[in-house]
């Protein structure tokens, strides 16, 4: 499903942000990527999103090599991905329904499909009754649920979450992680970048630890240990 083969990413002189990383993630896995600030976690996610190009090595996702991928192909590749960020990135001038529907409109889904699918995914994340609300009328946890719904509406094979609980209180963080676990249980591959030690250690998933750009450990039912 996801393979990184001797992947490095440099922004300039000095230590690479990602340094000779090798990683294999099977379809349907749930993987935490952890490490201190500056360890390379977010760069790794951006490489998988094809937001950045690797300096060297190979990245293969669902059988597609990312290096050398033509620009017109990138948009189609990204349709296989759902992405959730710490800062939600919602459209402030559109309500919940329109924020989620937007993700379908950009890939030219027919209106009848949008009208059916958006309420389904809002139900999945527990926001069916809030479909007319605007982002500034929602709590942080509710905004992250909208972001999750938007990421899931096109039924992606892979969900990438970069610090999805970074702005949330512990109870809300736990609720979001339970949602991610349910999404994974339905067959979606989930990769979560986080510095939330309590969540990682409570969930007992696979844990990949990065330090100064290198992957220094990979544990099947791991814990978050400071590098």
What does this structure look like?
It is a peripheral membrane protein. InterPro entries: AAA+_ATPase (IPR003593), ABC_transporter-like_ATP-bd (IPR003439), ABC_transporter-like_CS (IPR017871), ABC_transpr_LolD-like (IPR015854), Cell_div_FtsE (IPR005286), P-loop_NTPase (IPR027417). Homodimer. Forms a membrane-associated complex with FtsX. Residues 2-227 form the ABC transporter domain. Belongs to the ABC transporter superfamily. 33% of the residues lie in helices and 25% in strands. It is an alpha/beta fold. A six-stranded mixed beta sheet has the order 6-7-8-3-9-10, sandwiched between helices. A four-stranded antiparallel beta sheet has the order 2-1-4-5, with helices on one face. Strand 7 (158-162), helix 6 (170-185) and strand 8 form a beta-alpha-beta unit. Helix 3 packs parallel to helix 5 (140-152) and helix 4 crosses helix 5 (140-152). The longest helix has 16 residues, at 170-185. The radius of gyration is 17 Å and the shape is globular.
Gap from first CA to last CA: 28 Å
Biggest sheet: strand arrangement: 6-7-8-3-9-10
- Spell out the helices and strands N to C: EEEHEEHEHHHEHEHEE
User: Structural class of the secondary elements?
Assistant: alpha/beta
Rounded mean pLDDT score: 93
């Amino acid at each position: 499903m996801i393979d990184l083969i001797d992947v490095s990413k440099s922004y300039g002189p000095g230590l690479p942000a990602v340094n000779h990383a090798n990683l294999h993630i099977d379809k349907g896995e749930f993987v935490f990527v952890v490490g201190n600030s500056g360890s390379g976690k977010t760069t790794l996610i951006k490489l998988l999103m094809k937001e950045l190009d690797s300096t060297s090595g190979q990245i293969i996702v669902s059988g597609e090599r990312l290096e050398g991928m033509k620009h017109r192909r990138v948009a189609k590749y990204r349709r296989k991905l759902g992405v959730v960020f710490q800062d939600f990135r919602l459209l402030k001038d559109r309500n919940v329904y329109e924020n989620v529907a937007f993700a379908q409109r950009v890939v030219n889904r027919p209106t009848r499909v949008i009208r059916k699918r958006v309420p389904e995914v809002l139900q999945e994340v527990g926001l069916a009754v809030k479909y007319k609300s605007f982002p500034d009328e929602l709590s942080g946890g509710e905004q992250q649920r909208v972001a999750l719904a938007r990421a899931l509406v096109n039924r992606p094979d892979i969900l990438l979450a970069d610090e999805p609980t970074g702005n949330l209180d512990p109870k809300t963080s736990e609720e979001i992680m339970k949602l991610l676990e349910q999404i994974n249980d339905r067959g979606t591959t989930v990769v979560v970048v986080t510095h939330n030690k309590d969540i990682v250690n409570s969930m007992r998933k696979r844990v990949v630890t990065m330090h100064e750009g290198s992957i220094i450990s990979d544990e099947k039912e791991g814990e978050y240990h400071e590098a």
